[in-house]
Amino acid sequence: MANIKQLDPGASPLHYFGSELRRLRREAGLTLDQLGERLYCTGSLIGQIETADRNPTKDFIERADRALDANGSLLRLWPLVSRSRLPRSHRQVAEVQAAATQIYAYEPQLVHGLLQTEAYARAVLGVLDHDDLDTRLEAWMARQHVLTRDQPPLFWVVLNEAVLHHEVGGPEVMREQLTHLLSYVGTRRVQIQVLPFSTGAMAGLHGEFQLLSYVDQPSIVYGGGCGAQPTANTEEFAEHSLRYDLLRAAALSIEDSARLIARVLEERYDPCPRTDDPLA
């Protein structure tokens, strides 16, 4: 009973999820072991999740939601729970992206996290740390829910051409990743431009950054020389907005960017080259 008294639903997303899981389990009249039988896991594991000592996976949440007839109330907590499983630095990025209505990003080295395939993301995260990679990868990919939610943000990204040539994970991973980028051609809420090598010195030399806008709170800038913390400083935001305008002006058009991505895909990574126009 000590753990039950210590659990504070407001302490973290994991504590809130645990309290909801316990509430629904009790309303169903089930013990930990009885629910464990329905979910094909131990009652001890469920107890650890209820007390926020273990992170639930998406599969666990889906099964618990069905077993407890929660009508999606547990599953709707997954985006919140998944962000809490990220490293602190990545968690902050996920949190500021989650409520944004507009996201404008510049990426000089890697495909933006919201557009990464699972294999590409695995290769990126695996370089940093192999510990608990599957758990971190699942949480990392869950960030992309922001693009498929009801009323998703406008997401506009400028990629340096180097991103297309930087072979992350090998040719097969890059082939899948560039194909994934091309799948956004013609979509309204995701726009991709490429800044070609021929641009030379440009406004993105300070590194990656994002501009995020919201309905009822100040716009913020993240990265780009502002340090590790997002800032709502109006002068910083204005400076980075100007930088971003210059980057977009120097980048290829949306259509020509898609053609460049397709050309790099064909010439560098595709064993069966095609000649069709990605915009056709």
User: CATH architecture of the largest domain, please?
Assistant: 2-Layer Sandwich
Q: If you consult CATH, what is the topology of the largest domain? A: Endonuclease, Chain A
Side-by-side strand order of the widest sheet: 3-2-1-4-5
What proportion of the residues is helical, as a percent range?
Answer: 40-55%
Total of domains? 2
Alpha-beta classification:
alpha/beta
The helix/strand order is HHHHHHHEHHEHHEEEHH
Explain how this protein is built.
Residues 21-75 form the HTH cro/C1-type domain. It holds the Pfam family DUF5753. This is XRE family transcriptional regulator. GO terms for molecular function: DNA binding. This protein is an alpha/beta fold and 280 residues long. The chain has two domains: 2-81, lambda repressor-like DNA-binding domains (434 Repressor (Amino-terminal Domain)), CATH 1.10.260.40; 92-269, Endonuclease, Chain A, CATH 3.30.870. It is built from 13 helices and five strands. A five-stranded mixed β-sheet has the order 3-2-1-4-5, sandwiched between helices. Helix 8 (118-128) crosses helix 9. The radius of gyration is 22 Å and the shape is globular.
